[in-house]
Each structure stands twice: as C-alpha cells, then as structure tokens.
Amino acid sequence: RGIQHVNEKGHLTIGGVDTVDLVKQYGSPLYVYDVQHIRNQAKAFQSAFSKYPSLTWHVAYASKAFSSIAMVQLANELGLSLDVVSGGELFTAIKAGFPAKNIQFHGNNKTIDELDYALNVNIGTIIIDNFYEIECLEYLCKERQKPVNILLRITPGVEAHTHDYIMTGQEDSKFGFSLVNGAAEEAVKQVMNSAYLQLRGLHCHIGSQIFDTEGFKLAIKNIYNYLSEWKKELDFSCEVLNVGGGFGIKYNNDDQPLPISTYIDAIVTTVMAESDAHQMPIPEIWVEPGRVIVGEAGTTLYKLGSYKTIPGIRKYVSVDGGMADNLRPALYQAKYEAVLANKANAKDTEVVTIAGKCCESGDILIHDAKIPKSESGDILAVLCTGAYGYSMANHYNRLPKPAVVFVENGESKLVIQRETYEDLVRFDCSYSQEPTH
Ligand code: LLP
Asked: Would 39 be classed as within a structural domain?
C-alpha cells in the first residue's frame, strides 16, 4: 500500500506519526486512520466525475463502513453526502452537524420510529426498500402534511464478483423491489400516486468488494430496459440513478481493484449511452462508496503476547485483540496482511499464525503471515482494517472496544475513546439485593 512508511528507527509510520509512539500514547489495540488517504479517495471520485461537466452527480460516504462523529465531520468537509442505515447512524450524523439535506437513509426494515426521526430532521432522501415502508412513510408524511424525496431500491438481478455473504443485488435478496417479478413496477405505480412521496429515481447496489465494471454495466442496462417501458406505460422519468457502492480495495495481493476513475467512467458512459439509446434525459448519477473511502486508510495496531509452537505444524502468535475488533476473518474468511511495526525493516522473517485472544478456535486474524521474527511486546500492524472493522466490533468476551485515532501531517488526534471495564457494565442492572462492588 502506498501509505506505508518506515522511519529511521525502523518503525512503521502512518500520516507521519510513529506507530510505536501511538501505542505508547493511546494503548492497544488501536485503530489508526490516515486522514490524507481518506481525502485522496474522496477526491478520486470527485475528479473522476468532474470529467463530465454536463452531469449532476453525488458521492455519498456509506457510513456503515465506519461511523463516528469525527468521520462524519470529515466526510462533510470533503464534500461528500452521507448514507445512513439506521437511527443510530443518522443520530451520529446529526450530532456531528452533518447537513440533513445531504443524508440518504437506507435499510430493509427501517422502523416507524426511525422513519419518524428521519422526517423530523428533514432528511434529504429516503431510499424505500419495500411495500411496508411505502405504507409507513405515506402515513407519517400524511400525518404531518409534509412531502419527502424518495428513491426506490430495486434488485437489478445482477450478481457482482464478491463473497457470498455480502451479495445484495441478486434476485433472491432481502433487499429492494425485484425488477423481474413486477414488484418494482408496482412500487413505482404506488408512489407515483402518492401526494407525499416524491419519487426522484431508482437505487441499486450490486454487491461489495467488486473488482470489475461488468456488474455495474449489466445492472444499468437492465434497469434501462424497464425504464423505457415505464416511461411509455407510466410516464415515469428517472431523475436520479443511484448505483450504490461496492468498489473494491486491495487487502492483499490476491485483490486487484480498478482505479476509482475506471469504475466511474464505466458507470457514466453506460448511463449516457443507455439514455441516448432510449431517448431519455441523462439522470443525476449517485454513488455511495464505503469500503474504498476508509478501508485502506485504516490500520490496527496490536501488542504481541503469547506464543505457542507446535513442532512441525505451526507457530501461533497471539495479539491483544482479535475477532472482537475485526470480525471479518472469522465471518468472511477475509485475508489481511500485517507488518511488525517496531521492526518494520527486519529481514529475518518467519511464517506464523496470528491469533486473536477470544475464546474461540476460529479467532485467527491471519493464517500464514510472513513477518520478521518477533517476541512478546512487539507491535503488529494489521493493514486495511478501516472499513467494517470498528463498525462491526463487538464486546465478545467483554473486551472493551479499542480507541480510534486520526493521523495527518505528523499529528494524531483521538476520535473515539477506548472503552473501560466500567463502560462494559454501564448498562447492567443488578439482580442480587447485595450492593455491587
Ligand atoms: N450501499 C448499500 C446499499 C450497501 O448495502 C452497501 C454495503 C454500500 C452502499 C457500501 O458498500 P461498500 O462500498 O462499502 O462495499 N460487512 C461487509 C460489507 C457489507 C456491505 C453491506 N453493504 C464486509 O465487511 O465486507
């Protein structure tokens, strides 16, 4: 990755800050974000779209990848819109001062309370997922005599190259209205008849960690076949086409993502060609990347602890975190790379298994990691943990969640505090009559 640097002490630095000093100052495990990298990723989308001056476009950061007040503020500073998928993510955004008009609300089961909250803060767009949501939102809007901008999420029937667990665009999906079975058309009809739901266009999301442009092109072409029918039959014109997120990143050498501009060029040229072919005006194009904005920017720093060598089989090296702060290896067999942060230049390497500290055999962060010979107390940096790391962190084994710092220009800033043991029992209520200690 371009973001790796080693200083004269042989220590890994991120954003000009020595990672060994970061662990001294903030403890471990520690999530570290290279802010410059996040800026670069946002800019890459913006300059890719700027090549098409006649086009209206929006890039929304999918905050499920990593949501915190500081991150949402940074997204706003970078001129990104925001995609939220729950009342909690929306609350974070509002607390952070993110302009509600630039927020899009997703989800396959938004509760009435969540929808109510979104309307109260004057959210920019609600992306309706299903018929129940049409009903709920219609009711809520009618009650307050207030319209809301919506997109309809459709499943375009396209499978993107990705891991099974994270496929969301194919026909058999819990998300969205199916194009092929007529559900999408029925939804368009229903909302076109609504006085409150202002249908601006369609949304689709074909998957995550995508390495080619084929899926996007197919999805767009498929959508246009229906759009041209709906134009004739329903007089529906699609002002906004949101093609979702899913742009891949390089966790390791097996991953070959395309440059951001290649995805955007393919999306824009396909939309333009299809609009032309079907004699429709070119819609606004929206994208909502999460992983590619924050994934490679994030690194997790751990301290190495215990060692176990099984002669002739393997050597386990355990870190002071694991599946509680990075669920992806256990959940998706996701592969990561690591460097020994305090001996980054050491040449004498060995192959070890990096284990987490959770009480579960599957808590292995990296199988067969090639790192310099290490000892207890050394610092291990697991790379590319910025997306779906902190956001999927959990309290398994009552491990407190690690702190998060932003680094840039040689300076670090704490953006999420480390949890304490007290935090872990904060919401526990006593059962025994005896006073607790
Ligand atoms: N838009 C929608 C509607 C989505 O469902 C997602 C991700 C995104 C945008 C952002 O996708 P991205 O650009 O980050 O690939 N926890 C999994 C990933 C789940 C993705 C869910 N949806 C993981 O750790 O790989």
From this structure: no
